[in-house]
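Table S2 (text version). Query chain:
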Amino acid sequence: MNGMEFGQLKRRLIEIVRDIAYYTGEFTLSSGKKSSFYLDVKKLSLHPEGLFLITSLFRSILHTLRPYPDGIGGPVIGADPIVGALVYSSYSSGSPLAGFLVRSGPREHGRLRKIEGLENLPKEGHVVVIEDVVTTGGSLLAAVDEALESQLRVLATFCVIDRSEGGREALEKRGIPLYSLMTIEEVQSG
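Corresponding structure-token output:
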């Protein structure tokens, strides 16, 4: 994908965000912060064109990383559809990625795992951790910590929308880059 195609796909994704996933009003975010707007990126990632665009854009970024990652995952539930789509499309493209999902706490039954899919990754495998929306970075950092505790090497983090409220800086303080498909300023500037 060249820069022009990336830009066209990104512009279309921003249009869809504005049409179906951006709400104004009074909201409490998962970080506990109050906000005058809400981004329902789960709605976007469950939309056929929305998920296609997210996956296409993330795949183009993945191919710039060195080394190419062994896997991609993120916190349940925001990352679930995106991880599934990336894992699926990676196989047919000849650059397979294993997927993993990080629970907010260990399961209370079965094998009691906190990370699903870990056994599909090589020990000390290189991974990217993704989230739908980043505000303060709390849930993304928690998923990064779980990946690191499981002896994975985190190359980078991805998000669909960066709310520009400190998450990028929190990740960068830890030496982990954040690649976002768009910022809240880009969404609101239309």
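Notes on Table S2: Residues 45 and 82 are 7 Å apart (CA to CA). The helical segments are 3-21, 41-45, 48-62, 80-93, 138-149, 167-173, 184-188.
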